[in-house]
Amino acid sequence: MGMSKSDRFHAVTASFLGWTLDAFDFFVVVFLYDILAAQFHVSKTLIVATVTATLATRPLGALLFGLAADRYGRRIPLMVDVIFFSVVEVLCGFSVNYVMFLVLRILYGIGMGGEWGVGASLAMESAPTRLRGVLSGFLQSGYSFGYLLAAIAARLILPNFGWRWMFWVGGIPALLALYIRTKVPESEAWKQHKLPSFGAILLETKRYWQRFLFLIVLMTLMMFLSHGTQDLYPDFLKHEHHIAPNTVAYIVMLYNAGAILGAILFGQVSEKYGRRYGMLVALALALLMIPLWAFGWSVGILALGAFVIQMGVQGAWGIIPAHLVEVSPDATRGLVPGLAYQLGILLAAPTNSIEFALRDAVGYRWAIAGFEIVTIVLLAVVVWLGREERGKVLTKTFPVSQLEVSK
């Protein structure tokens, strides 16, 4: 039997909320660098290093929870993962020293690494084929939405309740496990393609090693695209264009709104015209905006450039959940997309360091502009050369007579 509309809605909603709340928990630290450095009596550099530590352990989470999702189904690993990262996030608020905080952020990285792949496979396997593109954009926009929620929390919770409450509020996602337990059905696609052991799952992945390596290259360049346009941009606006911090905060909120819009819009474009075509158009839009985004002559022009470039950047990203799930092997759909995604994060970790080194050589404007021009061109080539399986049937359907025989 197929899934009902209600079942599909709950599966996609659970995956979106999981990624949104996971991103919220991750970005909380970004707003607390100075406060945590003072609290733990360490340098700001060491606090920033906790973010790197979180990123470094994400592939481990993708491996562990991805294997579990292909062996035992999507629901239970997703529930365990959500509870795990929520508990760790709450414990971060009880940190008494830097070492304790660092260890907890390392553990948090494992939880964050597991959520995307399992959630994406559950959502895309549950989504109607004709809506997979737009729901892919909706799912991926959860990342930008989580960033927005973290920025709002930094404005409302931090000044009134203190830094510890930023992490304690991050425990709310644990309630999502109850929602998954009561409302979200198991993936029919997993039931049809499941393998009998972890060894069989790894062997199946090995069979498609060339495709897996290609996806890692794709995801590494996608990480260069997003982190290269986002991570240093607030600092760039403050130091290169001398924009006031409060104004910078509003620009950050504005371009995250553009990111959400772009993810959903280009997800729909990909459904009509193809995943690769949708990504290429989104990349072209981002490339066209680089002059305004990096060299804008006023706050308004810079804000416009940032808004539209993130429409393109996250427009390309919005296609990724559907694209990765469709081109991944049927029996390893819980492992391959998430692990490729998180290994891409790991390989792209030096993005900020590369841009800083370029800044010293050619100036801040050409550093970020040049880095992204090269990234977009390389990414467009990789996307063009890649395979596509838009509209791939993830769940087999059987005639009634066959179902009766199988009972």
Description:
With 407 residues, the protein is an all-alpha fold. It has helices spanning 5-27, 33-40, 44-72, 75-92, 98-126, 132-161, 163-168, 174-183, 188-193, 198-207, 209-230, 233-240, 245-273, 275-295, 299-327, 336-347, 351-362, 364-385, 400-406. The chain has a single domain (5-174, 205-385), classed as Up-down Bundle (Growth Hormone, Chain: A).
* Through-space gap between termini: 12 Å
Given helix and strand content, the structural type is mainly alpha
Largest sheet: none
By CATH, the topology is Growth Hormone, Chain: A
What name goes with the CATH superfamily? MFS general substrate transporter like domains
CATH level-1 class: Mainly Alpha
Strand content bin: under 5%
What count of helical segments does DSSP give?
A: 19
Unreliable stretches (pLDDT < 50, length at least 5) are 398-407
- The number of E-state strands comes to 0
Assembly of the depicted chains: single chain
Mean pLDDT: 84
Characterize the overall form.
Answer: globular
* N-to-C series of helices and strands: HHHHHHHHHHHHHHHHHHH
Q: Using only CA atoms, what is the Rg? A: 21 Å
The CATH architecture name reads: Up-down Bundle
- Helix coverage percent: over 70%
Domain module tally: 1
